[in-house]
Specification:
The protein is mainly beta and 811 residues long. Helices cover 14% and strands 41% of the residues.
Length: 811
């Protein structure tokens, strides 16, 4: 979406152009301009899908014909989990390129992904299946601007269909608007269709051509077709453009696709009898569920209960400050029991608090008792579905303790699924609960669509076809295989396994899949030629030649995140510094006890024209008579280029002369300044800085979001560099000796000689995010007390500066 702002106010241009000429046939540029004299020359979306991997580009060309500067906002939605790998703004021929990366070294390129030791970054979501990317640019009069964003995503199969969803919200009429989607599926296409998701207004405009393995979808409405009505100046293009398809499948053990040294194994059998389910519905009926949320939940549960199969066992637990069982044991899904359950649900009246801990432990107890008493079919699948709209307010309140209690008590063959209604619930907590216990989570809106969203979620897990699914490959032929063991396979979904294959030494790759089906154990084998796809893919001009590598990296990264889900970065008290001394192979740590609002100089190198400063922010309140402090803003000044960068926990702002560029900063971001590489700014000297955004729970009573800054040792500063970090670029001589017991047994002390001082230092462990930029790794560190006194030159107050872009006066 394109928006314009005459600061300080912002307004949507789709509303600001209602008074242009009413002639729908005149499509000249003047007819597309609003009172603000801003128009979209073109809005293009190009997407290419190669074997489920979608590469998408959104480009918007805008011109400001006004005589004064205006602030334009480029705001687009991208699918949750997509990897944004490039964003570019071209202003009158000058290109600003920002590589904003996610889930690996702040979105490291997939080709650099390795099986272990990834640095990752997470974009926080603002919608159900979408997240926003926003950039703001102050555009002088008479300026042409081109916004362009590129992202990649892996399209997952849900309910038997792959859906490629493209949010299409240009915000106003565009002189040229087009969506172009190409699909290349080596397995062959079973069907392709384009639902009328944008409404009847655009019926008949989309064109679709389909071959055996390829398809092309095109959507190019004229300006007249974009208008809401023949005399309207507002656009009707506002929604999701959806392309749905499925692939052909042979009756064998999945499809092995091998190309460029990587294999992808797709497995999605459908011709199997469902396994019986043992299912506990755990429903929040606290006071916050009163009204529409409860009405929609009841409606959904009636449908869900009616869809249970005769060989399923089920029960219902509802909870507020108390926990109640509809039945003390699991019961068969007979017509009479299902009818009684519907009546019970209908009679619930929400009130009281929220006791999530006891409700989940009760559900686990019922399943364990049923198993102990021999009530469960050995081939059945057990699951708990939790529905809640709020945080715990009764019983155990600490979320980490609830996670621990559930993990310690839940049997390994039970899956926990979480549905979070609305935005008051701590969705991260529900996600962790699910991921730690073989399930998934979903946030749903607490509105009229709650019922349909709940039913759709249930349908994804309502038909278990296999359990204990194992994928096996010859060890001598493959390496770095992603997760190859799965608790369950649900009908309509797809299991994907990937790895590296030694294609230079083997001609074929064999796989053996073992699993438990409804009536027997299964052993499925397949054999594939490692060069079987070469001819087809090398001749297909639109295919991504690295799709196997990128898919493998995507799976590997997400697997690592799931394995380490509970190890989120901890919040550090005070700006905490770790100085790694390469020569002595020691880490020296110190804190700076500064005050909120103060600005500390980190790097001051007037010879190379680089200054880096951090502004201190405080926690929400004192804790144990101490106010924790953090870095809330970091400023970079590249004097020789006249470039200034300000990074806060909310935005990134670049200033270059008259241009001010504002980025949304809802992700951890890598700011690189490297020779011949354009990220946000380009420098002549090779130099890079990593800034990580550490998010905390927004309702945390004390802690706040904060920033960390990390510098690689390859940066080339001058010999005059100084600052709290800069002074250690020329590494000082350090000697540590006389290690002895400290005041605390686990924290020994030692003597450190440095810069002519003898200091008492304390041994301990500290999180270092340079190696693993998301989860951190514990490293040994010698801690220098009193704000680094004796290790840092002078007093820390000597490093206070007046502005984010200041150099030290007397380093």
């Amino acid at each position: 979406m394109l928006m314009v702002a005459n600061l300080p106010h912002q307004f949507d241009l789709s509303r600001a152009i209602e008074r242009v000429s009413e002639d729908p046939l005149n499509q000249s540029e003047s007819q597309l301009e609003g009172d603000d004299k801003v128009s979209i020359q073109s809005y293009r979306v190009h997407s290419t899908i190669t074997s489920r991997l979608a590469n998408t580009m959104i480009q918007s060309k805008v011109v400001n014909k006004a005589k004064h500067a205006q602030s334009l906002v480029f705001d687009v939605q991208i699918p949750k989990g997509a990897f944004i790998h490039n964003f570019t703004m071209n202003v009158n021929g000058i290109t600003f390129t920002s590589s904003i990366r996610e889930k690996s070294a702040a979105r490291q390129q997939y080709a650099q992904a390795r099986a272990r030791g990834k640095a990752a970054g997470i974009v926080r979501s603002s919608a159900l299946d979408m997240e926003n990317f926003k950039a703001e640019l102050n555009v002088p009069g008479g300026t042409k601007v081109q916004f362009e964003i590129h992202y990649q995503e892996v399209i997952q199969r849900k309910l038997g269909t792959y859906e490629h969803v493209i949010p299409l919200q240009p915000g106003r009429l565009a002189k040229q608007l087009e969506v172009d989607v190409r699909i290349i599926e080596p397995q062959g296409l079973r069907y392709v269709n384009v639902p009328n998701s944008l409404g009847d207004h655009f019926a008949g405009i989309t064109t679709l051509s389909k071959g055996e393995k390829k398809a092309h979808v095109s959507f190019k409405p004229t300006v007249a077709q974009q208008r809401k009505c023949p005399t309207c100046s507002a656009t009707a293009v506002d929604g999701n453009f959806v392309v749905a398809y499925d692939v052909r499948r042979e009756a064998k053990a999945g499809e092995l696709e091998i190309f460029n040294g990587y294999f992808i194994h797709y497995f999605a059998p459908d011709n199997l009898d469902p396994l019986p389910k043992n299912i506990l519905f755990v429903i929040d009926v606290s006071g916050s569920m009163w009204g529409l949320k409860m009405k929609q939940t009841v409606e959904a549960m009636k449908t869900i209960l009616g869809d249970l199969r005769p060989d399923d066992l089920f029960s219902i637990i509802d909870f507020n400050h108390n926990v109640r069982n509809w039945r003390d044991d699991l019961v068969a899904a007979t017509p009479s029991q299902m009818e009684d359950a519907k009546k019970y649900i209908q009679g619930i009246h929400p009130n009281g608090g929220t006791n999530i801990n006891e409700a989940l432990l009760r559900a686990i107890f019922i399943l364990k008792e049923a198993s102990r008493l021999g009530m469960l079919d050995p081939n059945s699948v057990s699951m708990i579905i939790l529905v809640s709209d709020g945080d715990p307010t009764v019983g155990e309140l600490k979320l980490t303790t609830i996670q621990k209690n559930v993990k310690q008590n839940i049997p390994d063959d039970v899956s926990l699924f979480s549905l979070g209604i609305g935005f008051d619930v701590d969705y991260d907590f529900l996600e962790r609960l699910a991921h730690e216990n073989h399930g998934t989570a979903q946030r749903i809106f607490g509105n009229q669509e709650t019922s349909s969203q709940m039913k759709k979620f249930y349908n994804k897990v309502s038909t278990p076809l296999l359990k204990n699914v194992e994928f096996n490959y010859p060890r001598e032929s493959v390496s770095d295989v992603t997760q190859n063991s799965f608790h369950n396979y649900f009908g309509g979904s797809e299991i994907v396994v990937a790895g590296k294959v030694d294609s230079s030494n083997v001609q074929h790759l064999q796989s053996v899949i073992t699993a438990t089906a409804a009536n027997a154990g299964l052993v499925l084998e397949t054999l594939e030629d490692v060069e079987g796809l070469d001819d087809f893919l090398k001749k297909e001009e639109h295919a991504d030649p690295k799709f196997t590598e990128k898919l493998w990296a995507y799976l590997t990264i997400n697997q690592l995140l799931a394995e380490r889900w509970g190890e989120m970065p901890r919040v550090d008290n005070d700006p905490h510094f770790i100085i790694h001394l390469e020569k002595s192979q020691e880490n020296i740590c110190f804190n700076i006890d500064s005050e909120p609002g103060k600005i500390l100089n980190l790097i001051s190198d007037p010879d190379s024209g680089v200054a880096v400063n951090g502004q201190v922010i405080g926690a929400k309140r004192h804790e144990n008579k101490k106010l924790s402090t953090y870095f809330g803003k970091i400023g970079f000044y590249f004097k020789n280029k006249g470039l200034k960068v300000e990074i806060s926990t909310e935005t990134i702002t670049l200033k270059d002369g008259s241009y001010t560029i504002l980025f949304d900063a809802s992700a951890r971001l890598l700011v690189s300044v490297k020779k011949d590489r354009k990220v946000t700014i380009t420098m002549d000297t090779e130099m890079s800085f990593l800034v990580l955004l550490h998010r905390v729970w927004k309702k945390h009573p004390v802690n706040v979001d904060f920033l960390g800054i990390y510098l690689p040792p390859t940066n080339q500063f001058s010999s005059s560099v100084h600052g709290l970090i800069g002074q250690f670029m020329p590494e000082p001589e350090v000697r540590i000796y006389n290690e002895r017991p400290g005041q605390e047994p686990e924290k020994p002390e030692a003597t450190m000689e440095v810069k002519g001082h003898k200091l008492t230092v304390t041994s301990g462990m500290q999180k270092d995010y340079r190696g693993d930029r998301v989860f951190g790794t514990k490293v040994h560190c010698w801690f220098v007390h009193n704000s680094g006194k004796g290790f840092v030159d002078g007093h820390y107050k000597d490093y206070l500066v007046p502005h984010l872009y200041s150099f030290l006066k007397n380093p």
